[in-house]
Amino acid sequence: MSRVQADIVEWFDNKGYGFARQPGGTERIFVHAKSLKGRSRLKRGEHLELEIITGRNGKPAAQNVIILDAKQLAQKLPLHLATAALILIMAQLLVILGKANIGLLAIYAIMGLFSLLLYRRDKQAALFGWWRIREWQLLAVDLFGGIVGGLLAQHKYRHKMSKQSYQIKTLFIVSFHAIILSLIGMGII
C-alpha cells in the first residue's frame, strides 16, 4: 500500500480523532488516535505521512500514521525538485499577473522536455559505455530554458548529482533564471 502526505485540518482532543487532507485535495481523511505512531494527539496544521484505507461507510481513513517534522519533510522533497517547482511557480505567476505571455511557459516546457531527454540519454550512455553528451551541452540547454527539466532529470536519474563542479554550475543557472524572472516581474525586462 502506498504512503501519502496529508495535513491535519481538524482535531478533537476529547474524542481522540480528527481529519486530514492531502495537499490540493478536497476529500477529508479520518484519523484516529490509535493509528498514530508515538503520540495520541495532533494539532491543526501538522504534517503526516499515512496509508489510506476504506473506513466506515466507504469513507477514506488513515492507518500507520507518522507525524513528520521539518527535517523529515525536507528529506521527502529533495532540493532539485523544490527548486524546479519554484521556478515554474515564478513563471506561472508572471503569466497570471500579465507580466509575461504564455510563451514563457512554453519555452520552459519545451526546453525542459528537451533537457530531460538529453540527461536520460547521457545517463544511458554512461551506463552502457556509449558516446556521452558533453557537459557544456547539457548546461547550455538548461541555461536557455531547460533548467526545470534538467533539475528533474538530475533527481530522477541520479545523474551528475555527486559531481560538485557540475552542481555549482547548475546553481549559477538556477540563480540566473531566478534573477531574470524577478526582473521580468519588476518590469525591468
Helicity range of the residues?
40-55%
How would you state the average pLDDT, rounded? 86
Low-confidence stretches: none
Number of strands: 5
**Coarse morphology:** elongated
Task: Explain how this protein is built.
- The longest helix has 26 residues, at 103-128.
- This protein has 5 helices and 5 strands, in the order βββββααααα.
- The chain has 2 domains: 3-74, Nucleic acid-binding proteins (OB fold (Dihydrolipoamide Acetyltransferase, E2P), Beta Barrel), CATH 2.40.50.140; 77-186, no CATH class.
- Strands 3-2-1-4-5 form a 5-stranded antiparallel sheet.
- With 189 residues, it is an alpha+beta fold.
- The mean pLDDT is 86.
- It has helices spanning 70-76, 79-96, 103-128, 135-157, 164-186; strands at 3-12, 17-21, 28-32, 47-54, 60-68.
Q: Which helices and strands occur, and which strands form pairs?
A:
Blueprint: E1 3-12, E2 17-21, E3 28-32, E4 47-54, E5 60-68, H1 70-76, H2 79-96, H3 103-128, H4 135-157, H5 164-186
Antiparallel strand pairs: 1-2, 1-4, 2-3, 4-5
Short structural description:
51% of the residues lie in helices and 20% in strands. The chain is α+β, with helices and mostly antiparallel strands. β1 and β2 form a beta hairpin.
